[in-house]
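User: ok so my PI wants both of these folded by tonight, can you help

Assistant: No problem, let's get them done. Here's the first:
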Amino acid sequence: MTTKRLITVISLLCFVTSCKLNFTSKPTPTEIDTPAGPVVDPDQFTSSVLSDESYVSSGTHTYQLIKATSGSNTPTYMQWIPNDTNTTAGAVIVYYPYESIDWSGEAIDTKWSALASGGQPDEDGPYYNVATSSQIANTPISHLTAAQNMSLFTSNKLHTLIVYGRYYSGTTVAGDVQAVVDGYRFLNSKTVVDKTKIGIYSGSWGGVGVLYGSKAAATNYNLKPKTISLSYPVSDLKALSAYMDSIPTLTTDVTKRAQYVAFFDPYKRRLDKATEALAGQPTRYDKYSRPELASLDASLFVIHDDWDTLVPVGFTNNLFTSMTLSDKYVYYQRHPTAIDYDTFILNHSQAGLHQVDYATTLTWNYHFLITELTDPTQTRVTSFARSTYEAQFQHMKIMFDGGADTSAFRKTLGLLCRPNLQMLDVESGSFYSGSDVFVYIMNVYYGVAWAADGPAACAKLITNPPF
């Protein structure tokens, strides 16, 4: 599941504030509440600060590079970005499964971060065979860029923790899960984190770490997220293994089959390594299958396109069916025809009119986290692009008019009606209330008579929904 870079939100905010970036380092230890020495809990979870860093953008923003270990597990590397006032607030974990880092001090990270972006031999991956194993995508990222990517959370007074999965280092599925568990345990050690307001985000393969890591943290340490936000997530590895095996029956194109085999090879090797003790047994992948997630207790928001050829949308359908959560939100990008495996590209969406715009979907994911984790009495700031929102809504209306079931989108629209929400239109640089954004787009497609103003539109969403 080739990941795409998270939006560099700092550039959106700078569009309005005309800020200038100035990278600096080594703030005084009192600026962040993690001490320079290791912090150890009775269960042998240890975290230490590798470096104190900061950057300037309409003020100085501090962050820390963290090494965490638990027992004999491989270390987890994280980036702790407190809110600017270093006061008690909710926190967001952002799980980066792929990104390569250059600051851990480990030779493997130095090696991969120096390689070019794009395909590289998976020579540190499990069961690697130089003749048959596929390449993986290398995605170097600097800690400064990563910190700037989290600016939207900081501007909403939230703390942020980036957890790096380091896929390139050969970590298995079990490593993804452990990294996320370590993230929860780190936040549990922070006195400035409101433990009742922790959220977590990732996409695609990152869904494995988020979902099973959250389940493990809750089961083993009673550490629970308030909310989970995901984009086209892998949620059932047993089903994914079966999907990989089914590709020959889905396409008659020999070239296309080879593309699927090559794409899934690194994932299959990592899954098999994590479960090799059960090789040959029918229960081999049960530990990472949907029934294991049934007891997860958090509000959940998922975006998924039903033209996703990498992670079938049925995974998300089944996930929502099996979980007993009362607060579930989903945005499905619906299409009038089924996937044509002979012609469709390998991607989470298909290029053209019906493509799910990544920037647009990510604004929904972040919008959900921010409005779930912040005080409704404070001003909450999110971003959007008017043209892509218009295209998204237009597609939903076309599908609705054609008889498709778009009812799941109603609850998503309701997110625009949450109180004290200000949305930055990155195309114009102007701010609008969430309800005003909603009424504007509704009136574009239904005529100005659909609703007179934002509050009227939000009320009508309940009594006479547009989709």
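One down. Here's the second:
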Amino acid sequence: MKGNSNGRFVYCTMNNCESEEIVEAANIAISNLLPTKSRSLYDIAYNRFKKWCAEKNVQVYSENVLLAYFSENAKNYKSSTLWAQYSMVKSCLIIYDNIDISKFPKLIAFLKRTGDGYQAK
């Protein structure tokens, strides 16, 4: 962050500089990305994942970390629940940590395999 000629602050990253006004507008838009009615469910799923990571001393959210997390959860939850949790954690990781887990092919394959033989009621 540095000041410019008109006294406003500019936020700089490696690739670009953005005015305080732009950053504020983007933050407002980001805060509205999660569904309003189910935001608390998303936060619960995300916080549960973060707590699990803290217990396992995880520093980086890699594909193997997410595989281990969902593999552990697969022992207690049905495929449909795992997919719902995946969707919520995925959305929160994109918004809060800028990590796109939809690009993790082994994780997707694992979740698909958990649904083999599953019959919805």
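Strands lie at 2-3, 9-12, 17-19. Residues 71 and 110 are 8 Å apart (CA to CA). Good luck tonight!
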